[in-house]
Write a sequence for this structure.
């Protein structure tokens, strides 16, 4: 379980998170919505300890992330797969080596036969052809393929949690739908707990079984898609109205 | 006191307060920067036990520095040796024995020109490369990705680069010294009637083994400085492409200044002048 209690973070004079309370329960897929620049990615990075909050608690599986020792944090990170906004693939390594680095168990990482099989399996899971892409370098891949390789790397270590940072940003609608369907399928097939940060409302409604809206440094609402549609909260309404009306969703 | 004098005094007071605040802020930033650099260096030391991770990358980096810089270093030290020899020839008067030329060329190269020129060339070449590589990795979240996989950037990225600089810069300095002396030897024979025996006699007469050690010790410090500063600048890059540019320039300028500063300090400490 992931719990955030009163998390605050500022960069210089800019307050990004202003007392965020947020929960993710085991097996859930939660979409964290919000306009660009509201600190969604910052919040996600506090969960994995890449950004240290100024105040508040970030608890993953009962462990207080900001106060973990280096080795403890490293162990915790091995249970979390993180999909970066632009893939963040290592550009000096080919796809095989990139995905292989996701195998966090050292004995399995060193086992060349296991690594090759696992990498091929993960690449297939993200709807790519292992033979076609394994020897390619990130610069040779399209934006959508880079994101999928990023997902393959995140799942290679068999994580308990998957954190997606804007998995569909910068993609055309067709590729965005492919990624959404992929996230949904992985959640079902792998049984992981997922948090997806996005400003794509349609994708969030398609994939998540619970939503949270971040605005002005606070989570203004958490609930099911139906609860969001029924909400009279002005910020929720304003955010949803931009993408679709209730009739479309109901249909 | 008139109203005008009072206003002027207040304005002077404000300017003074701003100057004091500015100096205070700069001092705080310098101390904070030194602290961050200290923590970074400590973090690098923590990566040292993970030999299995850093060793293969160290070999690649050492090869890149060694092979990539070898001819450049030979060329520059060769020119330095030639210029030293030609200037010696220009200043030479008949009352000084010819073998002193050998002493001058060898001492200049080993004590100063070899290690310092090699360090300055490599501060530009590998310092810029390290800072740009790591800075790009930072702004494209590749370093965050490495950390998110539970892997330490120190053992994967920092230790191999710093150790490669630490080992390869002294090694290249040895070749630079040799190249400079050989070219200087050849050049001096073009301008003065110096025989090979004169040159070798002069080179050996005042030569102390400590001079060679001093040359190596200096270049060892220079290597560590260039490696650490460039990696630190790269790892702390901010704000996209502009940040990478700033970090790269900062790495080269800072490494160059620190190399020259260290040169002075080490000369004072090691040669007891």
């Amino acid at each position: 379980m992931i719990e955030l209690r009163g998390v605050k973070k500022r960069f210089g004079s800019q307050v990004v998170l202003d007392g965020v309370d947020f929960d993710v329960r085991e097996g859930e897929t939660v979409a964290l919505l919000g306009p660009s620049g509201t600190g969604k990615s910052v919040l996600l990075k506090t969960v994995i300890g890449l950004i240290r909050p100024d105040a508040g608690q970030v608890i993953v599986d009962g462990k207080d992330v900001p106060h973990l020792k280096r080795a403890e944090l490293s162990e915790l990170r091995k249970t979390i797969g993180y999909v970066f906004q632009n893939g963040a693939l290592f550009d000096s390594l080919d796809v095989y080596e990139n995905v292989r680095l996701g195998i966090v168990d050292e004995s399995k990482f060193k086992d060349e036969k296991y690594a090759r099989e696992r990498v091929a399996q993960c690449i297939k899971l993200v709807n790519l052809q292992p033979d076609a892409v394994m020897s390619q370098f990130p610069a040779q891949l399209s934006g959508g393929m880079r994101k999928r390789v990023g997902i393959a790397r995140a799942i290679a270590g068999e994580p308990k949690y998957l954190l997606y940072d804007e998995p569909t940003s910068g993609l055309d609608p067709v590729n965005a739908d492919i990624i959404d369907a992929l996230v949904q399928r992985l959640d079902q097939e792998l049984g992981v707990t997922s948090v997806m940060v996005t400003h794509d409302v349609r994708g969030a409604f398609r994939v998540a079984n619970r939503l949270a809206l971040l605005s002005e440094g606070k989570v203004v609402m958490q609930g099911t898609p139906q609860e969001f549609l029924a909400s009279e909260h002005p910020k929720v309404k304003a955010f949803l109205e931009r993408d679709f009306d209730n009739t479309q969703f109901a249909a | 006191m008139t109203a005008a004098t009072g206003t002027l005094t207040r304005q002077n007071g404000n300017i003074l307060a701003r100057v004091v605040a500015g100096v205070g802020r700069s001092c705080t930033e310098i101390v904070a920067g030194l602290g961050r650099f200290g923590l970074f260096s400590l973090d690098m030391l923590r990566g040292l036990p993970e030999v299995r991770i850093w060793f293969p990358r160290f070999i690649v980096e050492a090869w890149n520095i060694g092979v990539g810089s070898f001819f450049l270093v030979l060329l520059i030290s060769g020119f330095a040796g030639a210029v030293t020899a030609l200037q010696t020839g220009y200043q030479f008067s008949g009352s000084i024995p010819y073998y002193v030329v050998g002493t001058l060329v060898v001492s200049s190269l080993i004590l100063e020109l070899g290690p310092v020129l090699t360090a300055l060339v490599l501060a530009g070449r590998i310092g810029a490369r390290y800072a740009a590589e790591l800075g790009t990795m930072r702004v494209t979240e590749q370093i965050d990705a490495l950390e998110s996989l539970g892997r330490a950037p120190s053992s994967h990225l920092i230790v191999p680069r710093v150790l490669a600089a630490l080992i390869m810069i002294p090694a290249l300095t040895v070749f630079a010294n040799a190249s400079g002396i050989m070219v200087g030897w050849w050049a001096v024979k073009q301008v003065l009637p110096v025989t090979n025996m004169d040159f070798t006699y002069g080179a050996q007469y005042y030569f102390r083994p400590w001079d060679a050690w001093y040359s190596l010790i200096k270049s060892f410090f220079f290597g560590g400085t260039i490696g650490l500063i460039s990696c630190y600048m790269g790892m702390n890059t901010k704000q996209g492409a502009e940040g990478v540019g700033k970090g790269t320039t900062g790495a080269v300028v800072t490494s160059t200044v620190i190399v020259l500063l260290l040169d002075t300090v080490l000369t004072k400490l090691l040669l007891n002048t």
